[in-house]
Amino acid sequence: MAQKTGEILSQHLQELLDQSSDIEGAAVVGVDGLVYSANMPHRDMDEDLAGAVAAAVYALSARSVSQLNRGNLQRTLIQGDDGNIIVTVINDRTLFVGLTPKDVNLGMAFAEARTIAKKLADVLKDFA
Asked: Is the residue at 49 inside a domain?
């Protein structure tokens, strides 16, 4: 029996979190805010809210990059007192959201986000 897309995305997110010391929570979200798969670091974290926030961040960031003639949006970083949010473009319809602790090596976190975004793009390409 073939696996559903959500199950495959969930497996990739879990593998990332198992292997990463830099990313502690992750989600695959549509640019409309719909959450396709999520693995948040705390059970009480609202996945739907994370999807809505990621979509809003993406929309504002993409518009800003366009208005300032910086090409296509690749990723956005939001830094807070207790950690970071990395929103990385997977394709024109889908985003990867990574949550990191505050004292993270951002270079490694960006590299891991790029790697998983490429893997997820391949997965989503097969289900387009």
From this structure: yes
For residues 71 and 50, the answer to whether their CB atoms sit within 8 Å is no
Cβ(40)–Cβ(50) under 8 Å?
Answer: yes
Confidence of residue 77 (pLDDT cuts 50, 70, 90): very high
**Confidence band for 74, pLDDT divided at 50, 70 and 90:** very high
For the chain, what is the domain count? 1
**DSSP-derived 3-state class of residue 98:** strand
Strands (E), 4-93: 25-30, 35-39, 75-80, 83-91
- CATH number of the domain within which 96 lies: 3.30.450.30
pTM exceeds 0.85: yes
CB 7 within 8 A of CB 20: no
